[in-house]
Amino acid sequence: MDILNQQFTVIVPAAGVGKRMLASCPKQYLQINNETILAHTVNRLLSHKSIAKVILALGDNDEYFAHTSLAQHPDIIRVSGGVERVDSVLNGLYAVDDKKCPWVLVHDAARPCVTHKDIDQLIKQCLAQNTGGLLAAPVVDTMKQCESTSSVPKVSSTVDRTQLWHALTPQMYKTVELRQAIEQAQRKGITITDESSAIELAGLESLLVSASRENIKITRPEDLALAAFYLEQQKNNIEDDVCA
Q: What is the pTM of this model?
């Protein structure tokens, strides 16, 4: 069977407030072309032929989701979000039947521009290697290390970028391994910033799957315009296999 005919579940942690956006609502509910960022992201995922369900981890006091176009979607499962992103991911994992879904993907709510082509490559490579992994992009900028003791940011050194990659999402791992890795890290009180970091701490391998730099994470106000541009370009590009 073609591996891309298999069906997968994606966990989308969306309980954050996005303080750096300086907005009156959580950033996932800001709009691009009259649709929320969250809706753009979830619709992008569900329009992929290999993605059957999206598990949304939302804050218990979320007052926005019920008013979105996603609220009654039959392929969306809502779970309670946690204090930190990792808590939301873990709650999502508890809602996954690992017998039916031995693999799971996790994707940031604020990454609406991920392409189907990149999701294809992530799934293909992880299944072919029987190893989890993540979309990523090699660092191209000169990287500087900051002095940790300085009250004003100052350069302490220039970091060799040849082995550095920007971690993106989705990240795809075996359901049981990811759940156990996160639980283990939490028991030890170790901070987990993404799924790959939990997997690394558990001593497991993680593939780096090269992906488009259009897969930006909307974090600051200026990112909205860039995301809108990429979404429009992807929609108009007949060679792109993505449905915007």
A: 0.92
